[in-house]
Amino acid sequence: MKNLKMEIYCKNTALLEKAVNYSRTLGIDHHNAVIQIKRLPPSFTQTGIIEHPRQLGKRTYINIYVKLDSERYITLAHEMVHARQVLNGQPIDENEAYLLENTLDNDHQKRL
């Protein structure tokens, strides 16, 4: 079996590019994982959600949902910190995610 690396899927090209960059910055792009990023329905009050990961063999599957508002890149950064925590076998730590979300999304010129 070949050595599988991370795959990230998202219909929104800008979010996909950010997610790939965040995965590299966070040092998780080497994990055998599939991350799917989807739009969070407007009826949800949260801005982002990461679902409990699923394991199939040695591969981890993670779904991240992001509200497509003006804070979407910060929200994605926050949820990608949680993805790192999950992939590294660490507990979910909201404090770390809040501390790092702005560090990861520090290119305020590219926000819409």
Please provide a written account of the structure:
The chain has helices spanning 13-25, 72-87, 94-104; strands at residues 7-9, 33-39, 48-50, 54-56, 59-66. The protein is of the alpha/beta class and 112 residues long. The protein has one domain. A hairpin with a 2-residue loop joins β4 and β5. The radius of gyration is 13 Å and the shape is globular. The termini are far apart.
Summing up helix and strand content along with how strands pair, one would put the structural category as alpha/beta
Q: The biggest beta sheet, please?
A: 5 strands, mixed
Show unreliable segments: 108-112
Please give the number of β-strands.
5
Instruction: Count up the domains.
Output: 1
What is the overall pLDDT average? 90
**Rg estimate, integer Å:** 13 Å
Quaternary structure annotation: single chain
H/E element order: EHEEEEHH
The number of distinct helices, counting runs of at least 4 residues, comes to 3
What portion of residues is helical? 25-40%
Percent strand equals 15-25%
Question: What's the N-to-C terminus distance?
Answer: 42 Å
Which geometry do the CA atoms define?
globular
Structure in a nutshell:
With 112 residues, the chain is α/β, with parallel strands linked by helices.
